[in-house]
Amino acid sequence: MNVESKSFAIGRIPITKTWPSVDGGLFPAKAFSGEVIEFGAIAFREGHDAIAVDLLLTDPKGKTQRIAMHPGRPGLDQWLTKVQLTEVGTYSYQISAWDDEFATWLHNTEVKLKAGVDQELMMLEGQRLLGKMAVAYPKQKKDLIRFAELLTAKAPKEAFEDAMAQGLVDLASATPLRSLETLSESRLVYCERTLAGSGSWYEFFPRSEGAQKDKTGKVMSGNFKTAVASLDRVKQMGFDVLYLPPVHPIGTAHKKGKNNTLDASEADPGSPWAIGNTAGGHDTIHPDLGTEKDFKDFVKAANKLGIEVAMDLALQASPDHPWVKTNPEWFTTRADGSIAYAENPPKKYQDIYPINFDNDPEGIYQEVLRVVRKWISFGVLIFRVDNPHTKPVSFWQRLITEVNAKNPEVIFLAEAFTRPAMMHALGKAGFQQSYCYFAWRNHKDELSSYLKELSQDSADFFRPALWVNTPDILTEYLQFGGKPAFKIRATIAATAGATWGMYSGFELYESVARPGAEENIDNEKYEYKFRDFEGALKAGNSLAPRITLLNQIRKENPALRQLRNLVVHHSDDSEILVYSKHLTAEHAEGKENTVIVVVNTDPHSVRESMVHLDLQALNVAPGFKVTDLITGASYTWGEHNFVRLDAFTEPAHVLRIER
Amino acid sequence: MNVESKSFAIGRIPITKTWPSVDGGLFPAKAFSGEVIEFGAIAFREGHDAIAVDLLLTDPKGKTQRIAMHPGRPGLDQWLTKVQLTEVGTYSYQISAWDDEFATWLHNTEVKLKAGVDQELMMLEGQRLLGKMAVAYPKQKKDLIRFAELLTAKAPKEAFEDAMAQGLVDLASATPLRSLETLSESRLVYCERTLAGSGSWYEFFPRSEGAQKDKTGKVMSGNFKTAVASLDRVKQMGFDVLYLPPVHPIGTAHKKGKNNTLDASEADPGSPWAIGNTAGGHDTIHPDLGTEKDFKDFVKAANKLGIEVAMDLALQASPDHPWVKTNPEWFTTRADGSIAYAENPPKKYQDIYPINFDNDPEGIYQEVLRVVRKWISFGVLIFRVDNPHTKPVSFWQRLITEVNAKNPEVIFLAEAFTRPAMMHALGKAGFQQSYCYFAWRNHKDELSSYLKELSQDSADFFRPALWVNTPDILTEYLQFGGKPAFKIRATIAATAGATWGMYSGFELYESVARPGAEENIDNEKYEYKFRDFEGALKAGNSLAPRITLLNQIRKENPALRQLRNLVVHHSDDSEILVYSKHLTAEHAEGKENTVIVVVNTDPHSVRESMVHLDLQALNVAPGFKVTDLITGASYTWGEHNFVRLDAFTEPAHVLRIER
Question: What is the pLDDT of residues B202-235, one digit of tens each?
């Protein structure tokens, strides 16, 4: 084998790494409209001469911009720049590195004039260089020649000072020779709409919203008509997205009763994730919830309030699902001729038939595509995909790619809690965002490292949604942390996460678990819930005002709506977590925006600590003013600051730097 | 732009990473003949079913082997295997991941039989699976059918136990269905000869070897004839390679005198790195050293002793070099018409003209290729390249690639001490090995992290040569550490480095620096040295016996001649460094080989400490026997061991585990 043909040809000026980049360019990096992305390269040359490095960024319309990059920390040969991407579509970029002859001459001249060495020679060298520029830039020829003559018009030091005072550097910047220019390979950045990476989500079960119980205990299900009234509650708290668990007919075979029991009664509504019965399957609205028109009207009503509706896509069937009859080949037939239900041996889940994606991959793919497109035509632009890690990754890549090709506005959220290789592969396959392990990262150290991982290591391909709870997840921290735990978690999720979310009932501090399970007792998955949001609010037993405030703070502080700008700072206490998010004025609608969050992650204590800030990351000098966006209090802060955070009253500072 | 066509298509069973890999496959990974390489992949599938993962390794002759991989640590979806590469040339590999239906069935059957669930059904499922195998493997059909029948011949538990006892697992391993097989991209590993990655090197100046001073102080230069006698000294110490500084005519213009002074006399020999005068340039032997025939004879004499000769390739010229007249375009002409000498403004090096690689890149390239090939024809197969980081990386890539295409046995060593981006790029460009920062990593913590970096992070593209000193480098540690420092450094270099080296005089503890410089006073670069190796040996003032022992230990312990198998262990003391190197019997000529090195890195103290070993990395149980290869003493060791190391007598244990 010929090795020569197998090695990458290193350019005249080596550019050995560029970013953002996912798996060496196998996948485009992710961005969302409004996101600020660091573009970088490792570029260097032999010897001592200077190089310049530029980003050549081509937007989705094909227009290319040349942006000068600046050197990173000494010794690493990094070149960096930050750009805010705005247009939805695919950007491409290349790095250009070139011999900066003017910078080399300028440096050597300054050194030699100071040392009194080669003074005349350096003026002649400058003259020769400006002459080369004059040939390359006919428009600036006159100016360049004037400067060239200036360099030998007087004694060298004086001539040089004159030229500098008259703007030689600016002129030379405008007339770069760019000799030895070397271009990197081209890389892609796929920029999606803002909600793909930044937003606040709320989940409710429409069957509970407006459900009524009569005196006999008989329940009238809530439906899309009654649920419209609940949209105001969601709006008032400031959420962008309302996610609905499956809205399809629910299977009757092996239907689950209250608390996941096996002896459900007629009255039990069943788990909405056991999809399909004789009324229909994934393409059908549950008759209890109303008609297709009711659903469309509900989506429209939400949109009118500025709320998008996300639908569940749970690819599995109840034994009553129409697919079982029409396409038994989409399931696994066992050696005894029966259809295989879900199992994790020896556990059995007889109410669920998993789909077998290998018997008729094309047939099942086309059916799922049909279902997804049906709901898109109903105005649904967001799908929360249930357990995507139990289906082939290649299936998702094909589906998301094809859906996005026609509808780039459609967002898929992966509900996967599994090993990192699978979590990350789903992101690379195209999922716009992913549930993550945030719910189980509760204390300072684990949060510090996890937030760093999410905002830096994996941000090019994995967009985390920081959910504080779900119908499946009521963590021990929430079970045993009392009301302070709920306040702490909401504050961190809303400020650390570009995307955060919560499931209905969180604002009521619902914290009792089904024994032995990490989820709520009397779980809404198996029954109707009757929650008195108004009453709790009046009694002062609701977190809703805090949630409203947090979403308000997010809206007013664009830095908080970014993923990649999170910086963790140091504190002396083992539970005082400190992080900040910063945006330059250029990237924050003209007004520099910096928020520092200091949280006591121990819901059982009052903590005092010194907090040590990296002022460079905040672009601020000691003695700066901050306003606490929770209490309204003002402080003057510096590099080292004292805090006292009482989990029982107020566990967090959310401080905006006043400029 | 169409995003669809730009994303890598994820396979049915995702394989998201494979190694070894350099920059996502842009460059082949490096290996040397005899090196043990870990091949790995991240591969996983949806749901709970089992997969199997194989390495498909194709040797340079085109023969492909399928090697089963084993899972790595839980949760990481890593699959691993170690292979010892032996043939020089380019290997390629792919990873194959497939649905392991038999493993899935076996696991489920064991669980269900234990739980008393689906027992008959699982036997039927097994029967169906064996039937499928029988179709795929006609040769084993009879056996497979027999086992299939066995599964339903008795009650399930009993039938299953029978089948297991009769070898069902072995049969199934031999008849894998490999459904859903997915192949990774192909990657290359370039395997070079052993000395490219593993060996011990010695440097001397031939002009000093046999040089004689008469009573008037006049010196008769040593030469290739007199230097032949010194080969025995090199051989006795056990070195594989003898590296010679440049052997070409030395320039007279601006010739350097003793201690780098500017007023050299006729009698001063000058620096051999100021290459070229009227007698010739890079293609010429210095007349003082003899004729081309003398040089050839010297190389042959060395080879006869099993020593290879490495030549210097220093691409620069003295002002007297023939190139200056024949090809002035290979240098830089300044604005005043003069040729530019080397500078680091305001410092001037007027005895050296650097080559300008951009004026006539093709001309200079062909000339260098001619020079290199001339010396190859003289039997030189190793070139130590002086300051490669001041020449274009692309030049080296082209040169090394073209030379190796015809002469894959030729080795280039990069003498670059600079920023990591350049050091690493030179390795990727093709340099077989590189000087590194070992000389300046002297204490436990810095050695621990640097040895980890060298043996793990960068081993695929950067092969470090651990030199204890050079004519340019006499570190503060050696200047001020006394004899213990020399012993400590030699011991670490010889055991931690697959390649190590030293410059003549190290064995005599030469430790006086030129004031203000990090190199020896009365440096051999500018004068002849008259060293009494024999006398020092007799007086007990020579490190030569220790060096001989260290090279002997290397020869007897193949684990020490590997780069990637170094594991750092913990000690309680801040200066007690502990590392081990291990090879399985399969990779060490049939005899498992493990060496543990414990060194006191403080040359001024006696230290006592507990040493805590990772026994898994040593493949040993507590209570194992070790022999100290330095003292011959035997110990019984376990996980936690006491050591006492006296820098003034013996600063190190080099312990071989006795099996």
Answer: 999 999 999 999 999 999 999 999 999 999 999 9
CA nearest to B408 within chain A: A3
Q: Is B335 within 8 Å of A60 when comparing Cβ atoms?
A: no
* Cβ <8 Å between A12 and B125: no
User: In B, which residues are within 8 Å of A406 by CB distance?
Assistant: none
Cis preceding linkage at B28, omega within 30 = no
| First and final C-alpha spacing in chain B | 63
Q: Across the interface, do A77 and B344 touch by the CB < 8 Å criterion?
A: no
Min Cα distance A535 → chain B (Å) is 44
Q: For residue B318, what are the CA distances in angstroms to B274, B349, B372?
A: 5, 10, 19
Spatial CA neighbour of B396 closest among B365, B437, B363, B360: B365
Closest partner residue to B112 (CB to CB) among A27, A108, A345 is A345
Both tokens of A23, joined, read: 């798996």
pLDDT digits 0-9 by tens, B108-130: 999 999 999 999 999 999 999 99
Taking CB atoms and an 8 Å limit, are A128 and B76 in contact across chains? no
Start-to-end C-alpha separation, chain A:
63
Confidence of residue A7 (pLDDT cuts 50, 70, 90): confident
Q: What is the pLDDT of residues A224-257, one digit of tens each?
A: 999 999 999 999 999 999 999 999 999 999 999 9
- Which pair of structure tokens corresponds to residue B645? 């190391």
Query: Nearest-CA neighbor of A506 among A546, A549, A538?
Result: A546
ipTM score of complex: 0.95
Looking at residue A30, the DSSP 8-state letter turns out to be: E
Contact A45/B180, CB-based, under 8 Å? no
pTM across the whole model: 0.96
- Quote the mean pLDDT of chain B: 97
Q: Cβ–Cβ of B190/A3 closer than 8 Å? A: yes
The three-class DSSP label of residue B234 is: helix
Among residues A143, A203, A268, A386, the one annotated as catalytic is A386
Between β-strands B353-354 and B29-32, what pairing exists: parallel, antiparallel or unpaired? Answer: unpaired
Here the tokens at position A449 are: 């490292």
Among candidate residues A280, A83, A108, the one with its CA nearest the CA of residue A191: A83
Per-residue pLDDT tens digits for A112-163: 999 999 999 999 999 999 999 999 999 999 999 999 999 999 999 999 999 9
Q: Which of A5, A27, A44, A46 to mutate to test the interface with B (most CBs of B within 10 A)?
A: A46
**Residue A540: partners with Cβ closer than 8 Å, 6 or more residues away:** none
Average pLDDT over residues A616-625: 98
Please count the residue pairs, one from chain A and one from chain B, whose beta carbons lie less than 8 angstroms apart. Answer: 209
pLDDT digits (tens, 9 = 90+) for B507-522: 999 999 999 999 999 9
* Complete edge-to-edge strand list for the sheet that includes strand A70-71: A15-19, A36-43, A78-84, A70-71
| Residue A386 a catalytic site member | yes
Indicate yes or no: CB of B425 within 8 angstroms of CB of A77: no
Please give the residue of chain A at the shortest CA–CA distance from B343.
A48
On chain A, the residues whose CB falls within 8 A of the CB of B42 are: 421
Secondary structure, 3-state, A512-566: CECCCCCCECCCCCCCCCCCCHHHHHHCCCCCHHHHHHHHHHHHHCHHHHCCCCE
Measured between beta carbons, the chain A residues lying within 8 angstroms of B49 are none
The nearest CA of chain B is from the CA of A492 a distance in Å of 27
Residues A599, A601, A605: CA angle, nearest 5 degrees: 105
Identify which of B44, B90, B125 has the shortest CB distance to residue A421: B44
- Position A2 confidence tier, pLDDT thresholds 50, 70, 90: very low
Catalytic residue at A268? Answer: no
Residues A239 and A307: beta-carbon distance below 8 Å:
yes
Token pair 């669920």: residue:
A352
Query: For A419-511, where are the alpha helices, taking DSSP H only?
Result: 420-429, 444-452, 476-480, 482-496
